[in-house]
Design brief:
The protein has about 425 residues and is of the alpha+beta class. Among the domains are: about 110 residues, Beta Polymerase, domain 2 (2-Layer Sandwich); about 90 residues, no CATH class. Helices cover about 55% and strands about 5% of the residues. It has 18 helices and seven strands. α3 runs antiparallel to α4, α8 runs antiparallel to α9 and α15 crosses α17. The longest helix has about 35 residues. It is globular and about 70 Å long. The two termini are about 35 Å apart. The relative contact order is 0.09.
């Protein structure tokens, strides 16, 4: 059996991030490492952090044209961040004037915990409102030039776009909440998030963000959802690292342990924190190190998990199979259980048949016919070469490995 290990590029990248985030010792960077480090930083959505930490090495070791190429890309990220901050200012002005309560989630809310917020890669403008204000806010956004986009999950959010680069996502629920009893508890808890939010104000941006407790809960929900779906990149881990490092041990435990235990997220919080302690330079935490006492969490498990993060890239950028693996990993509640992947695949196939063939949903005895129809459709795709670059056996094997890791987290099991 091949022994698990980090590549030299991965090791150096993690050391650079620990230096960028917490001032840990900066690693030696060799000429041949520069290009692969910056390429990987882009795939993991941590390019501004990595480039700013490596700029002196890049300038000294590369010729001027190569240096200019990477510097231009860095400036592009910084300009994108500046635009994103300005759009948060615009959002705040519009909603404050209309006296509609809101708070932004994810991007800028996470950037607020960084020493240099503009080095945190940003994307869309994500904000949360009460559902009752949906039509009013939609009208206000359209008035300043946005158009509504089609979305896969309009029960959670609606996306609006303006031009080629501006995307605002108006949420009235939080992504990643499971469809079970625990999910109902979490939804109840989140009812007060908007009315307990705080103002985040820096030189560049002013907006309303969740308080410390709710930001942590959203980070856990968001990270758990993407990790067990298409995959997270190092940006998600960096967000958790700077957030959890802002607490004293007893402060975090007293704020979170009871509630996260009831939500089935305490083990996950411990695992994420230990990953950040081991690989990103977070100060050791007594409450998270307790997880190591359990036999399921050896050094090899943590290594498997960081390799899983690295192999995915941000939102699965590095692996097209990640999206196909979801049906072998997630159950109907939207979380990960300990059932085998083939039993889960069987149940997912049944769900697909019922969704695609309403008559079979009403007359269950026809289910085998549905299996045949879906099987023929899949074979037809193979014959048309629509699946030519996707190795099914390899995908199922990888999904099985991922499910074994994630099932140890006891996600949303109270």
């Amino acid at each position: 059996m091949k022994k698990l290990r980090l590549s030299s590029i991965d090791e150096t990248l993690l050391e650079i991030l620990a230096y960028a985030l917490f001032g840990n010792q900066k690693p030696l960077i060799y000429l041949e490492q520069i290009e692969p480090l910056l390429r990987e930083a882009r795939l993991q959505s941590v390019y501004p952090l990595v480039y700013s930490s490596m700029e002196k090495d890049i300038k000294e070791k590369l010729d001027s044209s190569e240096y200019a190429k990477y510097d231009k890309l860095y400036l592009k990220y910084i300009m994108s961040c500046a635009q994103n901050f300005e759009e948060h200012n615009e959002l705040d002005g519009v909603l404050q004037e209309a006296q509609i309560p809101y708070c932004v989630i994810k991007g800028v809310a996470s950037a607020a915990y960084y020493t240099q917020p503009f080095l945190r890669s940003v994307g869309d403008v994500d904000f949360l409102i009460k559902h009752v204000h949906k039509e009013d806010v939609s009208a206000l956004i359209k008035k300043i030039g946005f158009e509504a986009k089609k979305t896969d999950n309009d029960e959670v959010h609606v996306a609006f776009s303006r031009g080629d680069y501006s995307i605002w996502e108006m949420h009235y629920s939080i992504n990643g909440i499971p469809e079970n009893d625990v999910g109902e508890l979490i939804r109840e808890d989140l009812e007060n998030i908007i009315y307990t939010s705080n103002e985040f104000k820096s030189v560049d941006v002013k907006c309303s963000v969740p308080n410390k407790y709710y930001h942590g809960l959203i980070l856990l929900l968001h990270t758990a959802s993407h990790l067990t779906h298409e995959g997270i990149g190092l940006r998600h881990l960096c967000d958790w690292a700077v957030y959890v490092n802002s607490f004293e041990d007893n402060e975090f435990e007293s704020m979170f342990k009871e509630k996260l235990t009831s939500y089935g997220l305490w083990t996950f919080a411990q695992i994420l924190t230990e990953l950040c302690v081991r690989y990103l330079g977070v100060k050791p935490k007594c409450w998270s190190s307790e997880i190591i006492k359990h036999g399921d969490f050896s050094c090899e498990v943590f290594l498997s998990l960081i390799l899983d993060v690295l192999s995915a890239g941000n939102f699965g950028k590095k692996d097209v199979n990640r999206y196909r693996e979801i049906k072998y990993i997630h159950n109907s509640a939207g979380t990960v259980d300990k059932k085998g992947i083939f039993l889960q695949a069987y149940r997912n196939l049944n769900r697909k048949v019922f969704d695609n063939h309403k008559i079979i949903n009403r007359v269950k005895i026809l289910l085998p016919i549905g299996w045949m129809i879906e099987g023929i459709k899949y074979i037809n795709l193979l014959l048309k070469n629509d699946r030519k670059n996707i190795r099914t056996i390899s995908m199922i094997s990888q999904a099985s490995k991922r499910k074994r890791i994630y099932s140890k987290m006891n996600l949303f099991q109270n």
